[in-house]
Amino acid sequence: MILTSDTGALDHSDCEPIYDPASIQPHGILLVLESPVLKILQVSNNTFEAIGIYPKELLGNFLQEFVEIEEIEAIEKALFENCHQSNGIRLSFKSQNCKSFFQGTLHQSSSALIVELEPVVSPKASDCFNSYHLAQQSIDKIHKTPNLRVLCQTAVEEVRKMIGFDRAMVYQFDATGAGTVVAEDKIESLAPLLGMHYPATDIPPQARNQFSMNLIRFIPDINCQPVELIPDCNPLTGRPLDLGSSLFRTVSPCHAQYLKNMNVGASMTVTLIKDGKLWGLIVCHHPIPKYISYETRTACELVAKFVNLELSYKQDSEDRDYAIYLKEICHKFITEISQSNCFVEGLLKSRDELLALVGATGGVVCANEILTTIGKTPELAEIKKLLAWIKTQINNDVFHTDCLSKLYPPSEKYKEVASGLLVLAMSEMQNYYILWFRPEAIKTVNWAGQPDWQIELKPDSSPLMSPRTSF
Q1: What residue numbers bound the domain in which 253 lies?
Q2: pLDDT score for 1
């Protein structure tokens, strides 16, 4: 999805709606009910094909006229106990001496209830325990992963196994909204996307907000024809229905074209949340239309919820292990210093650990005018000049930069050993300092296509909402 200006930056167009509020995808039916009486206000224009009842026969009537009383009681109970969240429901419609069985969800949208249903073969096919059993083995494997990287890789392998798509990826967002593929599972014939970067404009802010609202987004056929709602506006409000939380909401033409540009015919996206914020997505692509049953998608949701729990745990575990490692180093320093004649002597007994404490490749211990170098450092003459400059910059005993040459141009000539710098002033009065150096790190970003491109303009010269074509 891309909404851009001619500079590739988001502008007012990023507020444009990304779905049609008056239509849905055709793999299910949608009913809009008045709460709490369950009067049918709107329906999708495919009810006859699905349940053998025309929209005009449903509109204005009450849901209990078409389904079993036990099902109505289940809906009323769900609304009473959990009215602010999506609820799973099962309904069976009676028509022409036969029954049509459905499963789906019910959620509140302003004053209306939105019911989204997909057909099943029989009532037993919608047993929620089936979804759990589908997901149980995957959850066990995910629970046993030792770290975040393996967690992501296991998640894509398990989800792809469950749905049978050709590719599944974990797409992680950075602070700017750009994304990177950090895990991938695919068929051998596909070109790998692992490690590829995507600009923030590929998934603009309003699309990221939508992902935060829905745990799973399924598009079985990119080329499907949308099904209109009848009537197109909610009779109670006179306004289009808010389908922001709808599972069936139509695909934005821009997003559909984006997927076509990637040769994708069907997609499923699962939201990954860490610490209450959008962390990334499990993105699944298939080259041709492919339907995934409601039951299987529910199993994928269960897996996603467990992955979301594990995201924080695995990251916290890695941070905790690193913190323990640092504490061990600090304890060693304390022991060495306590057994030495002076502070500096104690520090220099564990030179490798002094660098490891901050992940440095070089360091300098300055005691009065005596400089002791460790690892890879600039020449002593350059260090003395650098120290004189540092004394004019340091504040609250600490100074740090990840690009020294920008602040101190003379360091350009030794950036290979000292591009990153951390300084700790032990005693400015006694001229005691510790300097840590890191070398320049050249980072290569592999963009999945051209991140900056010329976009099309509308006749009035305003930016046209359009997808990137380079991949």
Answers
A1: 12-315
A2: 37
Highest mean pLDDT among 57-66, 123-132, 386-395: 57-66
Instruction: List the beta strands (DSSP E) in 47-111.
Output: 87-95, 98-109
Strands (E) in 227-265, as ranges, are: 227-230, 233-234, 239-240
Residue 123 has phi, psi (to 5 degrees) of -60, -35
- For residues 348 and 293, membership in a common domain is answered with no
Among 252, 280, 315, give the residue marking a domain's end: 315
Largest CA distance in the chain: 98
Q: How far is CA 360 from CA 242, 345, 423, in A?
A: 53, 20, 12
Overall size of the chain counted in residues:
471
- Identify whether residues 277 and 376 lie together within a single domain: no
Contact, 138 vs 160, CB < 8 A? Answer: no
What's the pLDDT score for residue 182?
A: 95
The rounded mean pLDDT for the chain is 84
User: pTM of the prediction?
Assistant: 0.74
pLDDT digits (tens, 9 = 90+) for 67-86: 999 999 988 888 877 766 67
Q: Is residue 61 part of a domain?
A: yes
Q: How confident is the model at residue 102 (pLDDT cuts 50, 70, 90)?
A: very high
Q: Are residues 305 and 355 in the same domain?
A: no
Does 108 share its domain with 244?
Answer: yes
Q: Is the pLDDT of residue 337 over 70?
A: no
**First-to-last CA distance in the chain?**
13
Find, among 396, 392, 333, the residue nearest to 365 by Cα.
Answer: 333
**Tokens 């029954």, located at residue:** 99
Structural domains in the chain (count): 2
Say if 449 falls within a structural domain: no
